[in-house]
Amino acid sequence: MHPADRYILRVLSTRWPRPARIPTLLDVSRGREGLGMELGRIGFRVTGITLRDGSLESLTERLTGLPAMFDAICCRDVLELMEDWTEGVGLIARWLRTGGVFLYSVGSGAPPQRRLPQLVRRWLASGLGSAGALERDRSIEAADLAATLRRAGLLPREMTAPGGETVRTVDPKAVAYVGYSVRRSDPTPPVIGLRWDFAGTGEHWVAGRR
Which CATH number fits the domain 3-109+141-205, given the four candidates 3.30.2350.10, 3.40.1390.10, 3.40.80.10, 3.40.50.150? Predict the structure, then answer.
């Protein structure tokens, strides 16, 4: 199983060890198999969305057809594919219930050799080399995602390297990581028990109030 999928399973099974009701989960991915079946075993009611390209129109269309809000949303290796990943985070976050969990993996999707043809097609279609065509395919630094999550009303709780579930510190310029955030309520409650540390950036939250 992919390390990011193992991380997602660990967080969700810890958060819902004995759910009082069947929790709902939205899985947004590039079509990687296996996780939905495992989540069903844990006791989730899973809805899957597969994104084959990074257009926000495609994402909006898929989200519009969904019937309800979700207790948890997994976004697996698709943010770096989007034309505007910051807007993509905002769109997806609107489908998360207050107190719900947003889980993500970044920078661990298709290997470079599989991404190269896609990069070339976009470069050619953009008028033989506009900077914007390649800009959409750059990796997302951890500090940038953390700031975007907060703007979308999602409180970052943890970031770690893929496969490094015991590590709680992420370099702010890291481009391969997994993590989760919680949808805040309004008004914002005290933040308790955070595991978060961006070395050297002032982003250092510890247990207790922020």
Answer: 3.40.50.150
